[in-house]
Design brief:
80% of the residues lie in helices and 0% in strands. By secondary structure, the chain is mainly α.
């Protein structure tokens, strides 16, 4: 009789574990959706007031990593390379300030920009990675600029 009771309890425990795993998956999905909403808000950056710190936050949240962290994993390195490229192409900040925002120096920024251009030309995996970030970034700036132009035309 005790063996059957133990088996029943084990089945119950396995069912509970399964239910908890499903609940965890649901929570993860909800958290990802909340993160997406935060990303959408951050993507509405004002290009006229381009801020590299906001760009650091945007890329970090978009990739779900901290690009200011000292980490040599490919995902981090690539995200920093894309950051340096976008910051230099779109901002008015110096290389020194671009580097300071991610705890690097200006020579690292120069290297990252050079590496971004090389990888974009030859590495299709990197090109897809960078393209995804750059497209989201550009889309939101184009959208923001069109809205500003429409508002200015209506005011006139």
């Amino acid at each position: 009789m005790k063996i059957k009771e133990i088996e029943r309890l084990m089945d119950y425990t396995e069912n509970e574990i399964y239910n908890l795993k499903e609940q965890m998956q649901d929570l993860r999905l909800k958290l990802r959706l909340e993160l997406r909403n935060e990303i959408d808000e951050l993507m509405e950056l004002d290009k006229a007031n381009f801020n590299i710190k906001e760009l650091v936050i945007f890329i970090s949240k978009f990739q779900d990593i901290d690009i200011t962290e000292v980490n040599r994993k490919q995902e981090y390195v690539w995200a920093r390379q894309v950051y340096c490229f976008i910051a230099k192409e779109n901002g008015k900040e110096s290389l020194l300030n671009i580097g300071k925002a991610i705890n690097r120096d200006h020579s690292t920024v120069i290297y990252n920009i050079k590496k971004h251009k090389q990888l974009s030309e030859f590495d299709y995996e990197y090109k897809a990675f960078a393209g995804k970030i750059i497209n989201h970034f550009n889309y939101n700036y184009v959208k923001q600029n069109k809205e500003q132009e429409a508002a200015e035309q209506e005011a006139v």
